[in-house]
Sequence to fold (818 residues):
Amino acid sequence: MLLLAFALAVVILFVVLRLLGNPVYALISVGATDEEIAAAAARLGVDRPILEQFGDYVLQLTRLDLGRSFTNNLPVGDEILRRLNVTLPLTVLAFLLSVVIAVPVGFIAAWRSRTWYGTAFSAVSQLGGAVPVFWVGILLVTALALNARIFPAGGFPRTDWEDPGAALLALTLPVLTIAIVSGSDLARYVRSATLDVLGQQYMRAARATGQSFAGAFVRHGIRNGIVPVISILAIQLSTTFVGAVIVERVFALPGLGDMLLVAIQEQDFPSVQGVLLVSTTLVLLLGFVADVVQRIIDPRLRASVSGNRRARAIA
Amino acid sequence: MITRHHRNRLTATLAAATASLLVLAGCAGGAGSTGAAPDANAEIIVGSQNEPTNLDQIFGGSSGVTEVFTGNVYEGLFRITDDAEVEPLLAAETEVSEDGLTYTFTLQDATFHSGAPLTAEAVKYSLERFIGEESIAARKSQLSVIDTVTAVDDKTVEVTLSSKSISFTYNLGYVWIVNPEAGDLTAAADGTGPYSLGDYRKGDSITLDVNDDYWGDAPANGGVVYQYYADPTALNNALVTGAVDLVTSQSNPDSLAEFESGDYEIIEGTSTTKELLAFNDRVAPFDDVNVRKAVYSAIDREQLLDAIWDGRGQLIGSMVPPSEPWYLDLADNNPYDPELSADLLADAGYADGFSFTIDTPDSGVHSTVAEFLQTELAKVGVTVDINIITDDEWYEKVYTDHDFEATLQGHVNDRDINFYGNPDFYWGYDDAEVQGWLAEAEQADSTEQQTELITQVNQKISDDAASVWLYLNPQLRIVRDGITGVPENGLNSLFYVYDIQEA
Fold:
């Protein structure tokens, strides 16, 4: 199934991109003659029949080669690796931070749902999930970079991670931006999962056997409540990855999202395909890992296929 | 009670946090005022929105690569100065034959960054590469007058032309001399300039290192980094926080106020970028001079310039900016006069107006301009439909297929009046006299004769309202205090960085 979906993605991507336009027009400037335009098309190989181009591309893919950029002729794979230097830490750190924010906030919002701060927590998480990510970014830049001058307003060290301190400093605001928005989202799921668990019979039964609330929650509650949350986590991590596209632009970070945007503008098809294939693969892998983890935690999912379906339905 | 207590502690924490933020801010603000002696080792960070698509001028590197490489990493046989004058660079001596068809260049003793010497063979290779089959360089057709290039000896190159070309040396100012051994230059560089290419990070930056073996004067700085920003706000933020020392071209006048007061200098030079409403002169009703003039006179360009550039920039009445020798002040040749416009329309048989479509690229300010034109032309009974297209669609639909009525475009090149001598150009202006004058001008014996002829062309296309030249963009650079030696004018994106220094 997965492989079929992947193959389909490759075909659709390839065909759609080539219907979108002619990459030659991104390279020429006013004054170019018809002959020059034809010569450029020949150099890029886009003057050949589309089937032939597709065949070549698939052959390349089987060698794990993503091809070369239409614009600067550099290998797309190397460029993606360089960009992952930024995007991967950004995504992972933002994701971890959002979990760190979401779990306590969501738990308290559920556990103390009738107190003023429980309500406040859930209101704040609703608000955080509702604002657009670029707006949070602009707000943070204005407050902490332009006014307070604590963090850089954008950019990434040209030496990448040679100076980890500088790299981390450059990533702080972007990470915070994504974490606030996706953490708020996540907190709402944690809250509803916790509410669900707290209302269950087994919690009452566990308390009746003399266990403390904390003991009962840790032993039975978390294990039950976390299963749907893991599906959400996997989806959330993918969204974080995608959200990086916007955040990278706001903070002028040379990451994968920025590469994708520029490649689309320049009609650099090999780069667009490369980025989309790599991110699709990562997202598919994440889904797979989430499935496996769920099965480890919840034995019912191991036993039957229907259980698996149920988990997906919740997701 | 407990709640109250917590709240107080929260308030206290917040207050403390705010206080420490203020202290930090104070520290950051205090730093930065250093001594006044120029620092030849200081690295200059240039902020730009004009990232080259690749690093080769003959394969679509566009104006971005001119900004970063021409004169800095690569040198031509000639250099075009900030005042648009031609002076010798790698050609130490130039001899021109009586008939003006043979040029003999004696080369400087220069070396490429890789260590190879500059040879006549390298010049031959570079010139032939520029006009070769694969090249899509902007000036290729003008330089295609080159007939043969011969390496007479190691330091002497002889170029013969198929016809006389008075602007030959000027055009050579844009042609890089590259090392033939360097191979593919779309992501690498090997030139003779004062800087070598240090690091190329697409989507981020290009680093230029000082070339210690440079044949000429050493640069006034210790290296230059071009830091690229796709988002204009991010670039502004970088300037405000000191992440860049200067901005090569400010495209958004709204944010100028921020830099007018305080620790920045705004340099306003002249650019060569002209905003055009270009008609398709082949099709009705724009094949009629009166209709074109009527549209021209219906537009209050002063108000437009004010709206777009906040009073900066300049009104022009033709394709020629003041920096070119054949400039005439034609700003009022087709004056803003709605009554005149209505009369002209009536003469042309469109007393009740007509309607047409402006194909408008979605980049830059074009769509704002289109809306303005829509309002202005409605006042004389002309209905404008705005069709927004991408830049690539523009090249396909308008530029290649000539499938349009009118369009908006910013023409950045210097000396590009000769497009009006090409009837196959996208706007299709076809005037035998103009074509004759332009051809004659290129064959002229002296620059005086050339200037005289092109001045005639200038007057004629303006009288014919071949296009509507709306205004000339200003060239706005913003420079932080303490940085000097920044070039003023924006001649087709040329930006020499070797005189920039930090005091």
